[in-house]
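Q: Got a minute? One more chain.
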Amino acid sequence: MQALQGIKIIDLSRALSGPFCTMVLADLGADVIKVEPGPDGDMSRTWGPFDRGVSTYYLSCNRNKRGVCVDFRTPQGLDTLQQLIDGADVVIENFKPGTLESMGLGYPVLSARNPRLILGSINAFGSDGPMSSWPGFDQIAQGYSGLMSLTGYNDGDPTRTGTAIGDLTSGMWLVTAVLAALLERERSGLGQHVHTSLLASLVGLLSVHGQRYLSLGDVPRRTGNAHAVIAPYGVFQTLDGPLNLAPITSAMWARLCGLLDLPELPHDPRFASNEARVERRDELKAILEARLKTRSKRDWTARLIAAGLPAGPINTLDEVFADPQVLHCGLTQTVNHPTLGTLRQVVTPVFSAAEPATSQRPPPLLGEHSIEVLQEAGFAPATIQSLLKANVLLQAGEPDRHTGTAP
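A: Always. Here it is, folded:
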């Protein structure tokens, strides 16, 4: 899907939330210019593990972008950045609130120069309010938002999710906001400042748990891998590993009992209703697992699916990326990286029958497209050479004038 072709985005963000947002926008066709601060670039370049010296963290969220490296600490660098922004449709940033203003690049300044500009911002706790100045990272926000209080076992510690869900969802929410702002601009001719935070993004995911409290004053407790209000529903052990099972209707529950050769169970007063099964979920789980442990998770999955019962194995990532359904759906794709060669990556999972998903560019080297982007922006050759000579601009393959090494 290349619906955003012709939209130019200046990406000032770093780490994960902003870069993930701009990668999705780039995958949708936007021309994303990743502007990194010289001389070291995005902090995520230093985070392992590494693939032959290249951060897999950085690789995960920066494809389909062009890379520019500019030293923002210099007046020439800030002026260069301002000129790039003047020609953009969208700017994305995830600095602490007030940082852009301290650089002289607050939205009123940018909008006065370019009224059609859309500024998208992500921060930790919000752009104003008593905690707006707090530093914050994903796990801090997971705890503050209440999400961790819902995750894990009731007799154990609150648990973070296995991925940086606050960073990723805030990036996704901001994609939605930017698309809406672009649509509104078609009607009004004007840009706007759209923003979200890690805190807001995660509170926005509380869903039924949030409504449960707001409507009933009921504070949900952690239930591990069991569903809070449906049983049986969750993780069950088989002969060779865990299996997810979700027979959510009375008819499914009866079919499950038949399949497991437990025909008397639906009539047992202890398990006759969903409420009774929730109340005795641990006792019920032990009974079901005694049967499930007689066969493998793959065997049970096939039998359960054949009986019309939602079920599936809990795959490790090696199993995921070798799975026939994952392969059939094209959930990974390859790009040609200038130093790593063929590079497999997870796709942005939105598809169109008319326009199959494609990936044109690998994540850029530090400053890989600096000269190219400035030339397109109208910088004179002499100006570009002056910026390179002063180490205000860094170009991959060009030697650093201070160290004599190429970035």
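A: The chain has two domains: 8-205+329-394, 242-313.
Q: Perfect, thanks.
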